[in-house]
Amino acid sequence: MSEKFPDNWVVLKITHHGKTIYKVLGGWSGGYLGSDCWQLNSGIVKVEESDLCWTFHGVSGSQYVCHKKTYGLRVNNAGIYNRLKEKVGDAVTMLDKTTDWNNLV
Q1: Which residues 6+ apart lie within 8 Å of 22 measured at CB?
Q2: What is the C-alpha to C-alpha distance for residues 91 and 103, in angstroms, rounded to an integer?
Q3: List of E strands, the chain
Q4: How far out from the chain centre does Cα 90 lie?
Q5: CB 23 within 8 A of CB 84
Q6: What is the pTM of this model?
Q7: Pairing of strands 63-67, 3-4
Q8: What 3-state DSSP class applies to 6?
Q9: Strands 19-28 and 3-4
Q10: 8-65: per-residue pLDDT in tens?
Q11: For 43, left (φ over 0), alpha (ψ -120 to 50), or beta?
């Protein structure tokens, strides 16, 4: 199991062949010496809440620990979201930050 701590994040609803899955699109800012990067998790199977964070458990066993106040697109993940939208259109949508994550799956 690996834990990931994105600097910002969104949840995507992806519909393919009549099946809907939810995935975390996380972004990390590279800072002075690094470069920005992003990751898309394997699919959310479980969600846990703490005071400051949401933890999204993926199909692969990874955990994305996401601070509640950092939901949204930034330069590090906006580009991939826009490319997904261009490629598959309405098959992918970004959920609103007011989504009830406890009842997502």
Answers
A1: 11, 12, 13, 14, 43, 44, 95, 104, 105
A2: 21
A3: 3-4, 8-16, 19-28, 37-40, 44-49, 53-58, 63-67, 92-94
A4: 17
A5: no
A6: 0.94
A7: parallel
A8: coil
A9: unpaired
A10: 999 999 999 999 999 999 999 987 777 889 999 999 999 999 999 999 999 999 999 9
A11: left
